[in-house]
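Appendix B. One record, verbatim.
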Amino acid sequence: MSGSPLVERVGELVVVSGYRPSDASVRSPDGGTVAIAVRDAFRGEARPLGTWVIDLAEARVVTFVPAPGGLRSIELLDADTLCALGDDGVLRVHALPDGGCERALAVPGARWITAVAAGQVILTGDGGLVLAPGGDAFVPTTPEPLAWRAHVAHGAVAELVDGRTLAALLSVDVAEARRHDAGVALTPWWLPSPDAREFAVLCDVSDRSPRPWSPGDLDEATWTHPVTFLPEDPLGTVRRWAAPLEAWSATWWDPDTLSGMVGVATGPPPYRTMPMALRRVHRDGSVVTWRPPDTELLDRPRSAASDHALDDGGFAVVVCAPGVARLWAHDPVTRAEVSRDLLAGLAPPSSLHPTRPVIAARATLGDIVLALPLGSGETAVCSGGRRLALLPAALGAPDRLEVAGAWVTLEWHPPGGAPWRRAYLAREPRRG
């Protein structure tokens, strides 16, 4: 954006236009405040570096928080607090809506804000581990800190883990080292519990040597088993959990359960193999893994499968394609499985666009939100069996859909580096 983003109402939508692919966007936990970080001069454009803050309920730009020294990463701690990590390694805490800097906390070596939890900001730097020759010991690539936590209210920064401590945490069980090839690099991912009292670390081992796979095999070699610890005594409280998870999908399902996905080998396309399994790993050592059924729907052009965790504790996957959205759900306690057509009753099949795929996202109340491209060029957005909005044909079919709090987000990604667009839709009708 060379200037302020354009924010306008289009029916029930709040449309934000003009941001670039390199601009980071985050939302407050309630979904109602959006922050867009301008971090570089995209393709030579002269753009002021900093963060635009937008109030969705009022459909307006609230403020611009400049970052003349450069900007690496942002996060909204809540609707009133913007945290911005500069290229200088300083975490600045800005009060909204005015944008004034309340605190500036030096975090040398920090590169990214990776999470916020319980009033704390979790920051990470570069570095990880290498499995030493012989395959029995992890060696840090740096002895420096790898992660920090900043207590925003107290204005204090504490080191979370350095390279040597991470190596010791992963070495708590020699079985972990024996799962991997000597020389392989491990990149840590950090996952705080919702109250930030406990942390899980999982390492990406994706640069491992290729292994022979058959369609349907679980890819458990790309990630380590989760290791959890308390920050005040990492080595005294370390625990290695019973099965690996993909870190980017992992969440704390409850205080004693980690939940996420495991990749599944599909073979070359076209394929009918469901590309993921859903898993929960419990502190007591029990593991529940569900392999959703394979389906011919994955053979269809522009098909995609997505995982969902339902609020009743069930696992679910949704496969979407042009004119198709089917859900499979699995109860991890009773092992019962159901399958249903998510489009039933929403739109006649003849009204759907023949080549544009349906898109699905999970809502916080357990509903599946759908974007249905119609043959008319319009797009219907539906949740819980009802239509939330009808997007005009002028917007085109969206490329991405997600839900946070009470708001649905739709994205359009024009090719060739053209400015992107987002639209936000309240899941409950606007009043007044």
